[in-house]
Amino acid sequence: MTYALIAVAALMFGLYNVFIKLSSDHIHAVLGAVVLQFVAAFLGLGLLLATQMQSSAGQLLWSWRGLLLATLAGVAIGLVEILSFYIYGRGIDVAVGNPLIIGGSLLVTTGVGVVLLREALSPVQLAAVGLIGLGIAAFAWEAARQG
Asked: Which of 60, 129, 35 is nearest to 16 (CA)?
């Protein structure tokens, strides 16, 4: 079940980037990000209300730390959305921009996981991350070379 959810999340994240690219020529970057965030907030609120109404426990799990970290995640994704609208609005193809953005984020999250959160990776996993880094570098170099 978890892998099916991962596949659906990957599909939705890919479509999210495609829709930002397609809309970036038709809407101001910040307005596009605001619309996107409002839709996501209303969808999330609806799901929260539905799950709470169906829950027999009735207790909503939360903490101040959880709210702070979720807020910081919201700031980060809000800035990514605005930057994505700007990037794609300047003519970068989604087939180029998305691998660079997502690939770069993979390196950041893996680095934070290993260095700051003390998460362990096997030698094969570390080698795979290194290959991702090399792939991103080659991809960016070729994209810059083509102009």
From this structure: 35
Reduce the secondary structure of 15-45 to three states and give it as a string. HHHHHHHHHCCCCCHHHHHHHHHHHHHHHHH
Q: Name the phi and psi angles at 52, rounded to 5.
A: -70, -35
pLDDT in tens, 6-16: 999 999 999 99
Do 80 and 16 touch, CB atoms closer than 8 A?
Answer: no
Mean pLDDT, residues 86-104: 93
Same domain, 80 and 101: no
Both 37 and 104 in one domain: the answer is: no
Please check the confidence at residue 57 and state whether its pLDDT lies above 70: no
- Number of structural domains in the chain: 2
**pLDDT, tens digit, 9 for 90 and up, residues 31-52:** 999 999 999 999 999 999 998 8
Q: Which structural domain range is residue 108 located in?
A: 94-147
Answer yes or no: are the C-beta atoms of 86 and 92 closer than 8 Å. Answer: no
